Amino acid sequence: MLAFVIAIHREAERIIAHYRLNKDMRPHPFAIYRNESVCLIESGVGKLSAASASTYLLTLLDESREDILLINFGCCAASSTEFPIGHLSVAAKISDDDSHRDYYSDIARTLTAHISLSELVCVSTPFRGAVTSSDSICSENIMIYDMESSGFCHAASKFLQTHQYLCIKVVTDYGLSSNLDLGILDRALQISFPKFIALIEQLALCPYVSEVPAESALLPMLTEIADKLKLTHQMQRTLKLEVRKALLEKRSAQNVLSRHLHAAIVNPLERRVILNAIIDELRSEKPI
Amino acid sequence: MPSLTSCEAKSRYNVIYVEDRAADFPVTRTILQKNSGATVIRIRNYKDVFSRPRQNTIFQKQNPSLILAVKTEPYLYPGPDVCQNFGFDAFYYSNFLLNCPFDCEYCYLGGMYNSAITVAFVNIEDFRSSILDASQKHERMLLALSYDTDLAAFDGVYSYTNEISGWLREMPSLSVEIRTKSANIGLIRNLPPSASLVFAFSLSPQSVIDRYERHTPGLESRIRAVEAAIDIGHPVRLCFDPVFTAAEFQADYDLFFETILHRIPAEKIRDVSYGFFRMNDSFFKRIAKNRPNSMLYLDEYEITDHVVSVRSDLRESVAARHLEKIFAHIPKERVFVL
Q1: Do B39 and A112 touch (CB under 8 A)?
Q2: What DSSP state is assigned to residue A210?
Q3: What is the mean pLDDT of residues B185-213?
Q4: Residues within 8 A of B (CB atoms), A 166-195 only
Q5: Closest residue on chain B to A119 (Cα)
Q6: What is the DSSP letter of A168?
Q7: Residue A66 has pLDDT above 90, yes or no
Q8: Residue B192: what pLDDT?
Q9: CB proximity A110 to B under 8 Å
């Protein structure tokens, strides 16, 4: 599942159109757009808004959290005109200008062959165009500034692994002292959009999915047996591991489990006897 | 320092995190020069990246990156009980690097750290002083340098081994062990042979390498590296550790020991280390969670004093078979069994 957290509708509209997302008409505290594999939430401006919208979205997508790639996309200011308007950048490091806390995205570094990486500073008020007051952020690199990224990263880091979230930003200005204009913003978003989509496609080409335990496909059967036999947590774990082992050794665990789907118990002693019988059968099943 | 915006030709590490205080060390400059295409990200403390919660070590192994950092004391640690001291009265180990370029399924590092990112410590002078102090307090001191890494495999990025080799003249009581799975013959040829610098080659049957030791050189390359080290005059230790007891490997082990002991002249081997797969139980649990479908972590083991190890009956029967072959070529007093 690809999920976007975007501050304002203007930044989101091209993505909504590209992926043909439909507005989720159920009542939500944020505007949400989705199709089967992509979801987008409009957070509003600021890191608190980004944090609460990210948390809300991740709670909504709770069941498929391991497969999520969460992206914060939006406008940013650059500290130097070396980054032209419309320049697209992936943040390798995100620093909160208030708390001085840093966040690092592991997936950003897989993109170095396709795009330049940046250091992104998240500020509470719009970037003024001068050097940031924070003396702890020392870098020889061109910095970019936004108002959502640290809130987004803070929330994402509570739910997701470090390779599952990423900030992608488009340079639209050089701070309050530069020419701020909606037309320029639109043009910057338009210029960068093909590259942005190419980048997302690149990420989709080589998705990293954590190793799924071999018995995952048999979880409904395992749950049914666990319910009927009133297995303790430890017993359920033992059974899962035995099923996993059987499957990895090419023994048909499904046949064994099917035979016990209708088992019922009267007392805890029977539970142990049936569990042991299942384990014995799993172990003695012939490899396919 | 290269610009962050650079995305030139691929280097071994495409991103290098540099601690602010590590930026001016010569080691940092050398590594950054060698990896001029890498994106450099300045960080306050290596633990800000290395110790983050919710890192996926398997993802990180597939997409390696490097942290250059300054280590704080201690620079030396007492040798662990689960490792051989080879008869030395003082046994220490030291970490110039955290984590390893290789990706061995049985390696305890996957359970020891939150991260698979390699950390290279750049303040080597602090290490040298500490090692010198310790070596002056002992008559015979063993220092293992490749327990939490494979130093020789990192040689293409920075040659810590070369630095250490240069220190040995001023530390006569010190014996250094460089344990490796690498087949870096260039390194072996470049280092002057010294009785104090022992190359300890970890060897396993090819079937075990294929199954468990991802990104490592094959057995034949390692044997050639052993032969090169012997030719040049380096003291050589052979490490048959960890040995696996699964029935499917036993015929391979038989052939393996015959091949090794036939090709490598026994009199040229300083000693042999032999041991079974074993691991701290909390590391074991953590790796088992990260690698749910690894049969290695689904097997049955015994746990004694928080150490997970092969069942003792199995250990005894397999060891008897292997040691018989080893003792036929190498005297018992030169074989250290753990």
Answers
A1: yes
A2: P
A3: 95
A4: none
A5: B41
A6: E
A7: no
A8: 93
A9: yes
Cα(A163)–Cα(A158) distance, integer angstroms: 13
Q: How far is B305 from chain A (nearest CA, A)?
A: 22
Quick one: average pLDDT of B61-69? 93
Task: Check: CB of residue A166 under 8 Å from CB of residue A90.
Answer: yes
**Tokens standing for B90?**
């003082």
In a domain, B14, yes or no: no
Q: What is the pLDDT of residues B303-319, one digit of tens each?
A: 999 999 999 999 999 99
- Give the nearest partner residue to B59 out of A141, A142, A163, using CB atoms: A163
- Dig out the tokens for A258 from the structure: 């099917």
3-state secondary structure of A45: coil
Question: For chain A, which domains are there?
Answer: 2-205 (3.40.50.1580), 214-284 (no CATH)
pLDDT of residue A191: 95
More confident residue, A145 or B63: A145
B55 found inside a domain: no
**Does residue B176 sit within a domain?**
yes
The Cα–Cα gap between B338 and A68 comes to 45
pLDDT at B172 over 80: yes
Give the position of tokens 């805890």: A268
Q: Given an 8 Å threshold on Cβ–Cβ distance, is B48 in contact with A163? A: no
CATH code: domain of residue B245: 3.80.30.30
Q: Which one, of B179, B184, B120, B107, lies nearest residue B150 by Cα?
A: B179
Domain count, chain B: 1
Q: Which segment of A40-54, B132-146, B269-283 scores lowest on mean pLDDT?
A: B132-146
pLDDT at B64 over 80: yes
Look at residue A131 in the predicted model and tell me its pLDDT. 52
Asked whether residue B8 carries a pLDDT value surpassing 60, the answer given is no
Give one DSSP letter per residue of B263-313, joined into a string.
Answer: HS-GGG--EEEEEE-EEEHHHHHHHHHHSTT-GGGTS--EEETTEEE--HH
- Domain enclosing residue B249, as ranges: 73-95+124-337
- Of B106, B64, B49, B63, nearest in space to B246 by CA: B106
Q: Are B119 and B70 in contact (CB under 8 A)?
A: no
Angle at A136 between CA A133 and CA A139, to 5 degrees: 95
d(CA A271, CA A9): 57
Q: How high is the pLDDT of residue B4?
A: 39
Maximum Cα–Cα distance across chain A: 78
Q: B14, A118: Cβ pair inside 8 Å?
A: no
Taking an 8 Å cut-off on Cβ atoms, the answer to whether A117 and B43 are in contact is no
Q: Using a CB–CB cutoff of 8 Å, tell me whether A248 touches chain B.
A: yes
Q: Are strands A165-173 and A69-78 parallel, antiparallel or unpaired?
A: parallel
Quick check: is B295 in a domain? yes
